[in-house]
Amino acid sequence: MPDKTVKNPAAPMQAGGTSSVASTTPVDVAAGSKNTLNRRSYLKTAAVVASGGAALGMPAIARAQNRTWKLKLQSNWTGIGIESQDRSAQLFIDRVKKMSAGRIEITNFNADVLLGIGETFRGVGTGVADLAVTAPIYHRGTVPVGEYLWAVPFFPFTNLEFYEYIYQFMGIKELWAAAYKPHNVAHLTYMCSDEWGAMVSTRPVAKYAEFKGMKVRAFGIWADWLVHNGASIVTVPGGEVYTAIQTKILDAAAFGSPDAWAGMKMYEVCKYYLNPSVVPYDVVEVIMNLKTFNEMPPDLQEVMTSAARVMNLEISALTIPTDVRGRKKLAEGGMQTIMMPDDELTKAADWCWNKFVGLKGKDPNIDKVIEIYTQAKQVYKDYYGPKRLPT
Description:
391 residues, 2 domains
């Protein structure tokens, strides 16, 4: 996505993106208690009498423990009508405050308020925002592997536990962290957002060849496939798809889930909903300024990581009822669902996978993802194949 001008820039941060902090009484000890005084006296005495590194280190540790960390969260999809995003972001903020006993306070900024989508990754690295809920596809120009961490069309990410295995035990988590570290960005967790790739269209499309001549919003390998079938790609921010279709800048678009399309009232400008989604879950993420994260004491680092991982569970659960309601709203608004035939889907899946593995040799991180995903596809087939039930 193209970068935009920063809106409402934040007040200057400390060098390296350090978040603003304030001193406070330790939250687990009553103000003015004997334990508080003893602890402070001990730290003060230790700072005076200790020698070497300990003399310098103890006050710094004490300050880190006694801070209230006031963090700015840029959410790329709150405030635009996607219920699951709004609810999960608020639950995350509340959970962090509770788990930290008030030592971390997060303020959420809705989509495009603090940073545009295209500038979110860089803005977190430089400290304009401390945190973000975003997607790695949006910073593929800076971190090329981000596109494939986000999604490979038709890759069988249909179950949360399946991707959890890939992430935790096949090397994706470590690859993600290493790719972001040079940019002063910490990767806290992936999140399996809702489906991606079911398209709204002003024209009925029963075969991919019928995209010929259409102006389409898409990106990644899926955009390559549509271009292969004669479409032209028009880059439009997700929040502007409605207007772009209304003004005939676009004929069709891939962006979000049924909940997102319904929230944007796309049934007012599009008659057709092209299914199924070619990405069962698109992988989004929670990122944080690395310097700020490293300055936190270990217990608060764990709070941030654990709370983010719980948000992953919540958003994946919340998308189920919201997408059910979204599909109903689209139908009630007059939108007709068109299912692509199986032979068309098989053809598209084979083309997209070959396009993906054909990238081997262009980037070491992409090579590693190709290796992991190839192994994971076989695991999926071997595990879920025998368990498949009739529908």
